[in-house]
Amino acid sequence: MMRFLLLFSRQGKLRLQKWFTPTAEREKKKIIRDMTTMVLARHPRSCNFLHWKDLKIIYKRYASLYFCLAIENQENELLALEIIHRYVELLDKYFGNVCELDIIFNFEKAYFILDEFVMGGEIQETSKETVNRCIDASDMLQEDDNNDWYEVELFG
Question: For residue 73, what is the enclosing H or E element?
């Protein structure tokens, strides 16, 4: 089971965080600080797997963002790396070559895509096509709601 997913920049600024287990705010801040300093201090050619406390930390850098995933010790590291990659593929499909600014200005959509893909620390849907259909359906629904609101305000 996944414990948390963090996205942070090369400068160490947190861009997205998802916690799959209840964690106190003070502990979250400490974990975020530890993860950013530990991952950013590593050599670019070193292994993407770390052992930290009772967890395995799997991270991958895409452009200027680090995707950092914590899993339990008995979980498969390569599967975790594939989860990160699949999430990046979903973001790429939605944003068209995702970048840090897409995450900053559309963080609610990045969270929504993650929630369609992963729930409660486990993979909810493995099919990219199914997740993309759900995202498109949500966008259409949101677009319809916005149009209805505009008509009510304009002609109400």
Answer: none
